[in-house]
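Record 1 of the preview.
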Amino acid sequence: MARGNQRDKAREKNQKEQAAQKNKNTQSGTEFARTKEAQAAIMRAKQEASAKKAAGDSSSTGDKKK
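->
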């Protein structure tokens, strides 16, 4: 039972530290929009590459089977 107070104090300290940390986005509106657009461009490039790979694989699969 002696450790109950220690556990409570540690929990309170941890909660205080967690509350002190910023969980929000620190970017301004224009920075956020720019980052979002850059990430979207990367995803579009990946999707195009995947689509090309899938289109190339599907046309040549008929010849591989014997």
